[in-house]
Amino acid sequence: MRSSVGLGVVIGTGYFTRNIWQRYIAEMANTLDTPYQGTSSDPSIWFEITEKNEVILHSTKVEMGQGAHTGLAQIAAEELGATMEQMQVKHAESMSGNVDNFATGGSTSIASLWIPLREIAASMREMIRNEASKVMNTTTDKIEISEGKVSAGNKSISFGELVQQVTEWEEVDTPELKAVDRAKYIGKPIPRLDLKSKVTGEPIYGLDAEMPNMLYGAVLRPHLVDSELVSIDITKAEKMPGVVKIIQEEDFVGVIANSYYEAEQAKEAIQSEWKTNNNWNYEDITEMIQVGKGHPQTIQKSGNPEGSLKEGGNLIRAEYKSPMGAHAQLEPNGSVAFVEEDKATVIMSTQVVEITRKEVAKRLGLNKDQVNIKPTFLGGGFGRRLHTPNAVEAAVMSKAVGKPVKSFFNRKEEFQNDTFRPPAHNFLKAKLDENGMIAAMEHNISSGDVSYGSPLLPAIVNNLIGSDVGAWRGGMIQYSSIPNYQAISWRVKLPFATSWWRSLGLLANTFAIESFMDELAEKAGKDPIEYRLAQIDDSERGTRLKKVIAAARDNSSWGEKLTEGRSLGFACSTDVNVPCAQVVEVSIENSEIKVHKVTCALDPGLVINPDQVKAQCEGSIIMGMSASMFEEMTLKDNELQPIIYGPYKMATMRHAPKEINVILLENDDKPGGVGEPPLGPIGAAIANATYQLTGKRLRTMPLTLEA
Amino acid sequence: MKITFSLNDEKVTVESDGNTPLLWVIRDQLGYKGTKFGCGKGACGACTVNIDGMAIRSCSYPVVAAADKKVITIEGLPEDHPVKKAWIEEIVPQCGYCQPGFMMATNALINSKPNLTDEDIDNNITNICRCATYYRMRKAIHKAAELNNQNA
Question: Searching chain A, which residue's CA lies closest to the CA of residue B80?
């Protein structure tokens, strides 16, 4: 127990020291690249070369729309000397393939595999060279590998022809990587590899999967938060048509039937009584999510912000609120499981193969190597599939009937059993100097949990930092020339699950900081963009941020005369070291904010596939608009509402801007994440633009004109 | 009860409770998985098919109502169909789950309105895409309409 003694000593030196130490780790965590955490670097597990000359990459990162499979194939083809036409990507199965100990998420798929995948592909290439030299009776230095062919002199054979003659592959030491050649695949807008399967309706998703003799399961789920199942009566349900069995486990009740419809009908017929422990309404939640309540932790500090921000004088304060959001991914969570005597197979959409297999193994009393998780394409991820208890439920039901069982959430259950984006309350303070520049600034973030309680991030990480790294994402102040500033995160635990939602705290925290920056620029009488540029230092990070800000300004109509009734708004953020700046053009039509055009500048470092990076920007912008302008979960007498699309209002075709212009700057030699960073600025940019038309600050999301 | 209808230009007969939503008959009894389950209440459009040329949300359409009608799913659109070609040219899908529903809604729309406007799209394409691919989708719908008019 030495380590805990050590920890005690550190804590014992007092809150002040601990806080500095934790702040140091928090700042590191904010800029650290997430390393790849796969279990194997054996090229023969990663790559399968078929006799038909196909190169199949068995990916540990799942494809949930972010285009990672295409980007990874481009990286691999380049290093291998293969053609893109040869490349296929399949999801690695946990029993036979490499397993990722982290997850698919956090905008890490391409960024974290950039080096490891190239090393593995380079090793595969050298293994091919060695075998080819034997088959072709020559020395390795005479062998050329390109375009999926191995050549020596004027002789040439395809990878497919070669593998037919290899009985055993010899391992090699990791070779030197090729210099990045942007002439071929890297940096090219190659169409997504899954494009055709997705426009022809191929059965590629978890919910499309089947197994022979499969039955259907439906799980009775709580519709009230902070509640317990007191009693159930299954007499009527058992007699419903098609019902095979109803099981009552400690943590769930499951109906197994011949069809989905019959399973659902029987579940509806179960008489259940739920008892709530405490009564909860949304007002109780907003009452809890208040800066000043819960556990505070300083996550960033420079200079003497406390001393500089004393009450009185010209202290400027503003507070902002963001709602609770649902994932609302279109494919409900579900899985098909088959449990046999000494093994279990689960086909499903999951972002966490390793966690899913461990949970299934534990529940069934199996070793994790006896559980084969077969990931499918995901009908949306967004963080929703970082929690996968549905795999355990399907497995338990399968075991109970000795047949495969397919079970999935209905939409009401999805909305009421989601792991929500927590509501947030942000409180900012600042003082300006005689020139209007910011002399001191403080950002307080109150939020429900994001990373606390998630199996994805060991509790020790949050405990080390002393705060929730997900909740404060995007909450650090990026205006590094301000002499005195700090950011403080206030942790609040809510009576239901809140967790990872695409970009985590980035949307809410950027909304607050960037709206506030606009307010300060106005008080200072300065142009909002120039005001920001003037308060960012010349560090590498600062320089990259300034470049995207300038690019968004220069590529938009900023400073030009607009159509009558239109206005512009600006905001920027930095997430996973990827700065993003957006200018939006809005008007007001029928008392609603209408977004016409978005100019988005992003610096994701080296771009592997510009088409897919742009697609991530376009999607993030409109999803961010949806979350900022329309979406809101609420709670009434313990029941989470709404329970269906429509009442849970989201952006649709009519709300989408008709113009989105994405400018990609590449001020780095390695790829960064793109799945989340462009979601940051949009809410604040819209609020700032709207203010120009109405003269009224919108400080609460969803942004509406009535309030 | 036995219900007969045309599915992708083939006559099919199924044995089912007449109240079963058409979606489940198409997916689980007939094995066409391109039509998706999203909400079960006709609110998201992932299950959209064409019935006698109209865009219908099959999760809320009892199979008995399809009797003797002509049902087309995404699998029933030929490879060179204007909607498929447009979707590929514009590289629309991200996760892709909702796309067949949007494509079937588009097919019904472009056949009923040859001179398609943005307003027609806004009023008729009300499906939900969580990846929010709407920007490219609008371009693809216009392109599909153009291709469709060329074919006509």
Answer: A200
Question: DSSP class of residue A98?
Answer: -
B127 contacts chain A (CB < 8 A): yes
* Number of structural domains in chain A: 4
Rounded Cα gap, residues B105 and A117, in angstroms: 40
Whole-model pTM: value is 0.96
> Of B41, B76, B111, which one is at a domain's C-terminal end?
B76
- Gap between the Cα atoms of A173 and A161, Å rounded: 24
Residues A260, A220 share a domain: yes
The enclosing domain of B128 has a CATH number of 1.10.150.120
B66 and B19 in one domain? yes
Tell me: the pLDDT tens digits for B73-107? 999 999 999 999 999 999 999 999 999 999 999 99
State the residue range of the domain holding A6.
2-27
Provide the ipTM. 0.98
A35 found inside a domain: no
Q: Which of A260, A619, A652 sits opposite B126 (nearest CB)?
A: A652
Other Cβ atoms closer than 10 A to B79: 8
Answer whether A411 touches B (CB < 8 Å): yes
Same domain, A311 and A349: no
* Chain B residues with CB-CB distance to A626 below 8 A: 132
Range of the domain at B42: 2-76
> pLDDT tens digits, residue range A616-656?
999 999 999 999 999 999 999 999 999 999 999 999 999 99
Is the CB of residue A580 less than 8 Å from the CB of residue A548?
Answer: yes
Residues B18 and B61 in one domain: yes
Tokens standing for residue B134: 């709407």
CB contact at 8 A, A57 and A76: yes
- What does chain B come to in residues? 152
Residue A150's CB is within 10 A of a number of other CB atoms, namely 25
In chain A, what are the helix, strand and coil shares in percent, each to the nearest 5?
35, 25, 40
- Is residue A580 in some structural domain? yes
Nearest Cα of chain B lies from the Cα of A395 at a distance, in angstroms, of 20
* Chain A nearest CA to B8, separation (Å): 13
- DSSP class of residue A132? H
Is residue A460, in this structure, part of any structural domain at all? yes
